[in-house]
Structures are given as C-alpha cells and as structure tokens.
C-alpha cells in the first residue's frame, strides 16, 4: 500500500459459522466510501471452492485418452498456464509413454496441443457445477452495491471461459463491471498488469483505496505490486486446495492448523488482511465504517 495515511486496526471477530477467532487488519481510517473499488479473483475466491475445476478437467482430459498419471496435480502446479502444465505432466515417463501409445509418434508439442484443446472443452463442460458463489460472496457483493463501490475481476483463465461464466453467476447477484484476463495484458500474476488494467477500467484514482481479494500467494503479490490492499481468503482457497467436502470433513483442530498455515503464508507474501471468508471481509468493512461514522460525530 502507498499514498494514504493508514493506521493499524487490530480487529478480533467471531466468525458466526464456526466460532473461530481471527485477527489482523489494516484498513484506512476514513469513511468506507473511501474504498474506490474491489477486484476479485475467480476460482478459489469467488467461485469453485478449493479451485477444483482445473484439477477435475485435467484428470478427465488425460483419462479420456487412456493416459494415467495426472491425478497428482497440485495447486502449486496450477500456478502454471495450462499448456505449460500439460508439458510438465508429459515429462513424466509413464505419462509420456502412455501418450505416445495413444497418439503415435507425433511431437510432444502436438500431443500437448491436443490435450490442451480437450482440457478446455472439459473445463467448459464442468463449469456449471463449479460456478456457485462461495460462502459470503453474495453478502459482500450486496454490501458493495449498497455503498456504490464498483467491483471487477481478474483471471488467469481464458476470456471465453469468463464469457461462459458470467451468465452462470449473474443470477446469483455477481455482476462485475469489468473482467480482465491474461489475454488483455499478455502476462499473468504475480505481475500487477491485470489489476492495474482493472483499476483503470473501474475509474480508480488511488490504487491504495482498492481491495484486491484473492486466494493464492500470487494474488497477494499482484495486489501489492499494484499498490492496492491485498486481502487473502482462507476457506475454499486454492492455497489449501481442498474441496468443500474435504474441508468440512476435517476435525476442528486440523482446520485451525490449516488456517494458521495459510495465514503465515499469506503474511509472508505481504497480505494486508487475511479473512476466513468473504462475509468476514464484509463485516470488517461494516465495522470500520461504523467506527469512522462515530468518530465523525
């Protein structure tokens, strides 16, 4: 963050869903209307709990060609663009040999291209089952709209995927004013280019009055590099890589341990604020607005 005079506000909130305590926030000591915009990531932040759709699509793609060995894809792997990830998977001897048996003696580039085309088809096919807004997102959006705070999105996904997503999330109340993808900037996170372009389209005058809300370390780094307030979400984050069912099946002590782990990683990456979910960010914004209104009396 830059350009503004900020104060450190230590906030302790009891999350209504599970009674967990968490703390830590840096917000401007100004009226909440000073926030000029919020920029959301998509998978793992807004939709697709645990960023599972790309993993499922990759598994289906390789399985459809009779190629085993893609099941060990990690969230770390998903930081790569998907063509690079497919090339990486093909470096495994078992995967490469299975691919050669299926495709014959063609180049690795041609194999990767065929797999990538199938991956995109599979991802488009499963999007409707992964497009439900994550817990609290609808509440946060309602708050932003009630306070006339514009919001947009950035994504490492292809523009055509975002085009297909928009009609799926609009009935849920999520209607971003601008959607920026790698195609628009030519560079993915942690480069700040997508955030900067989104801020320009949203009419942001002061990047330090913008919230960038994400679920990976690169989201945080890209927000910081753009001069915005980088906020990391824990539950359903790609950083953890757990589906909702997997998360809910964990004992409370294991959930707490993962929250602490995620909090530490976000903090090292430079997060200004770390929240359990989008609803907690909304509550914090409400609380700060109330305090500022009281100070003004």
UniProtKB/TrEMBL annotation:
InterPro entries: HAD-like_hydrolase_sf, HAD-like_sf, HAD-SF_hydro_IA, HAD_sf, PGP-like_dom2, Phosphonoacetald_hydro. GO terms for molecular function: phosphoglycolate phosphatase activity; phosphonoacetaldehyde hydrolase activity. It comes from the Bacteria. Transmembrane segments: none annotated. One of its GO terms (biological process) is DNA repair. Keywords: Hydrolase, Schiff base. One of its GO terms (cellular component) is cytosol. This is Phosphonoacetaldehyde hydrolase (Phosphonatase). The lineage of its organism: Bacteria, Bacillati, Bacillota, Bacilli, Lactobacillales.
């Amino acid at each position: 963050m830059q350009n503004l005079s900020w104060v450190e506000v230590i906030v302790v909130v009891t999350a209504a869903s599970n009674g967990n305590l968490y703390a830590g926030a840096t917000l401007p000591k100004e009226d909440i209307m000073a926030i000029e915009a919020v920029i959301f990531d998509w998978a793992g932040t807004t939709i697709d709990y645990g960023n599972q759709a790309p993993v499922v699509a990759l598994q289906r793609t390789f399985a459809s060609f009779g190629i085993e060995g893609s099941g060990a894809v990690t969230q770390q792997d998903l930081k790569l663009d998907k063509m690079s990830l497919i090339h990486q998977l093909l470096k495994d001897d078992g995967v490469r040999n299975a691919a050669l048996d299926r495709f014959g003696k063609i180049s690795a580039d041609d194999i990767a291209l065929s797999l990538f085309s199938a991956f995109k088809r599979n991802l488009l096919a499963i999007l409707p089952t992964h497009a439900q807004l994550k817990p609290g997102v609808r509440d946060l959006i309602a708050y932003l709209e009630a306070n006339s705070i514009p919001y947009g999105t950035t994504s490492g996904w292809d523009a055509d995927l975002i085009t297909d997503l928009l009609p799926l999330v609009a009935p849920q109340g999520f209607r971003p004013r601008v959607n920026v993808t790698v195609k628009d900037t030519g560079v993915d996170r942690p480069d700040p280019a997508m955030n900067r372009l989104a801020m320009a389209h949203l009419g942001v005058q002061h990047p330090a009055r913008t919230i960038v809300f994400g679920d990976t370390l690169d989201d945080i780094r890209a927000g910081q590099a753009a001069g915005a307030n980088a906020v990391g979400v824990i539950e359903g984050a790609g950083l953890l890589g757990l589906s909702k069912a997997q998360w809910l099946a964990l004992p409370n002590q294991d959930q707490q341990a993962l929250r602490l782990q995620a909090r530490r990683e976000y903090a090292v990456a430079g997060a200004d604020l770390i929240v359990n979910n989008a609803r907690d960010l909304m509550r914090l914004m409400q609380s700060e607005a109330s305090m500022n209104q009281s100070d003004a009396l």
